[in-house]
């Protein structure tokens, strides 16, 4: 009887752990998506941390988007743009700054 209880407990722990992992791997659609010049769409999975405006960088994944101010854009790490994706592959959030984060000038996202 004790063996059956332990097995059931291990099974419940496994299911709980799997559910947590599945929930974490599901990107939050409210954060939006980004598009690279390589035509891949990458969902944003991290909330913003800190506020900073940056000028456009020359990166193969750069995507020109709307953001008020001269050459200002949302910065992010694009994970889907080939072998150079581990380098700071930067781009912009689709949509205007005010549409994405009302009241916040610009946001830099973690990779």
UniProtKB/TrEMBL annotation:
Signal sequence, renumbered to the chain: 1-23
Keywords annotated in UniProt: Signal
Protein name stated in the entry: Avirulence protein AvrP123
């Amino acid at each position: 009887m004790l063996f059956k209880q332990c097995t059931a407990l291990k099974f419940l722990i496994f299911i709980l752990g799997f559910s947590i992992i599945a929930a974490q791997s599901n990107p939050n659609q409210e954060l939006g998506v980004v598009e690279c010049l390589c035509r891949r769409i990458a969902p944003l999975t991290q909330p913003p941390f800190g506020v900073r405006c940056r000028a456009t960088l020359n990166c193969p994944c750069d995507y020109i988007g709307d953001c008020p101010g001269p050459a200002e854009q949302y910065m992010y790490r694009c994970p889907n743009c080939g072998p150079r994706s581990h380098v700071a592959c930067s781009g912009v959030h689709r949509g205007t700054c005010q549409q994405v984060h009302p009241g916040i000038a610009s946001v830099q996202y973690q990779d």
